[in-house]
Amino acid sequence: MKGMTNMAGSQIDMADRAFPILDAFQIEIPSWGFANTGTRFGKFVQAGAASTIEEKFSDAAEVHRLTGSTPTMALHVLWDLPNGLPDVPKVKELEERYGIRSGSINPNLFQDQEYKFGSLCNPSAEIRGRAVQHMVDSISIAGELKSRDISLWLPDGSNYPGTQSIRKRVGWLEEALQESHRHMAPGQRLLVEYKPFEPAFYHTDIADWGMALHLAQAAGPQAKVLVDTGHHYAAQNIEQIVAWLIHTGMLGGFHFNDRRYADDDLTLGSIDPYQVFRIFHEILTAGAEGLELDVAFMIDQSHNMKGKMEAMVQTVVSAQELWLKAALVDRDALAALQDSCELVRAEETLRDAFWRDVRPLVAAWRESRGLPVDPLQALRESGYVEKISKERAGKQPTGGSYA
Ligand code: LRH
Ligand code: MN
């Protein structure tokens, strides 16, 4: 088979193991990862940034052409379907033209002025009603686009003690998610994302995995928890949270990114690649033990400094490599060493897989699948970034800190 011509026997067995693993690996890219984004201190615009839904589909198609692992793109309702349901036919046409399917649908309950004191948790029943209507519209859009997941993140919270009733807000949130769940079609999933703080800095209504798990269970059987790797205090053991969500059958998906301090939305594996490896290890071990998992892998990053196309391709390449490393852990040996409490040998069995340089194997897989052996180099040689920078220069909206 092409790509394996000059591989020794053991390498061929390794390829036999690795290639199907890489064939099955998929990770969803966020439309907003191609747009000009910034922080509250400003936004450095890139001439090639995407500002239209068509440009985002074009960029997503290029990432998939180069990596082979990103057939779907997550959409954010107000940013990508500003008119809601009436924008669906256009999106379907773009899916056709660019060969990229719409992925998770993200309601946006954090932009409208009326959500200052909350959306689904706002003391005003009227405002809560409008926020629930946006959830219902987002669920309909997902239905029209045959997207399985409605991925909900809420900025709701408060900035000062005593200014809001935390318990009343829990009650309103339970009602709103139960009402939303009632509008879901069979097979659809509601993913509840938690975040400890920002933009609220005293209390956030869905601040941690326990709150998200309770709300998802209270909403209904089609609701699960979404783990954004950037939404944890530095001292938290994320893979332990993942293990609990797997154990309770409540793990729905991930937003992968990396961080040094808080929700920095940096590129996956750029600060702590071992963190992603440990998360992947928990998922693969559960799968190897026969647990039926249905976990959506998604990227959620804002590329404020790196070239957006380069950052996205780099992220997918890192994810492919870290997934394969974790997939090659000798799980049987590890399980035996764990049971016999042989600590160092167990740890070395895990680290051995992490230290393995799988890049030649992934390159051989790409070659065997007709993909560019080095996607980042292929991006540079394609001239795609230069082309879109010329076409899009000066057309991007300047306002707003986010996409
Ligand atoms: C919030 C978040 C959420 C998205 C947004 C773009 O921090 O992680 O998932 O809606 O980023
Ligand atoms: Mn997220």
Tell me what the structure shows.
By secondary structure, this protein is of the alpha/beta class. The protein is built from 15 helices and 10 strands. It has helices at 9-24, 53-67, 77-80, 88-98, 125-144, 166-182, 209-219, 238-247, 273-288, 308-327, 331-339, 343-355, 359-368, 375-382, 384-392; strands at residues 29-30, 72-76, 101-106, 149-153, 157-158, 189-193, 203-204, 223-228, 251-256, 296-299. The strands form 3 sheets. The chain has a 5-stranded parallel beta sheet. Helix 2 links the parallel strand 1 (29-30) and strand 2. Helix 9 crosses helix 10 (308-327), helix 10 (308-327) packs across helix 12 (343-355) and helix 11 runs antiparallel to helix 12 (343-355). The longest helix is centred in the middle third of the chain and has 20 residues, at 125-144. It is globular, with a radius of gyration of 22 Å. It binds 6-deoxy-beta-L-fructofuranose (LRH) and manganese (II) ion. Residues 153, 193, 228, 255, 300 line the site of manganese (II) ion (MN).
Produce a short descriptive summary.
The chain has 403 residues and is an alpha/beta fold.
Attribute tags:
403 residues, alpha/beta, 10 strands, globular, binds 6-deoxy-beta-L-fructofuranose, binds manganese (II) ion
Please count the beta strands (DSSP E, at least 2 residues each). 10
- Ligand list: 6-deoxy-beta-L-fructofuranose, manganese (II) ion
CA-based shape: globular
The N- to C-terminal Cα distance equals: 44 Å
Strand order of the largest sheet: 4-6-8-9-10
Largest sheet: 5 strands, parallel
- Strand percentage, roughly? 5-15%
Helix-strand category? alpha/beta
Whole-angstrom Rg:
22 Å
The ordered string of helix (H) and strand (E) elements is HEHEHHEHEEHEEHEHEHEHHHHHH
Task: Enumerate the spans where pLDDT stays under 50 for 5 or more consecutive residues.
Answer: none
How large is the count of helical segments? Answer: 15
The percent range for helix content is 40-55%
Could you report the average pLDDT, rounded to the nearest whole number? 95
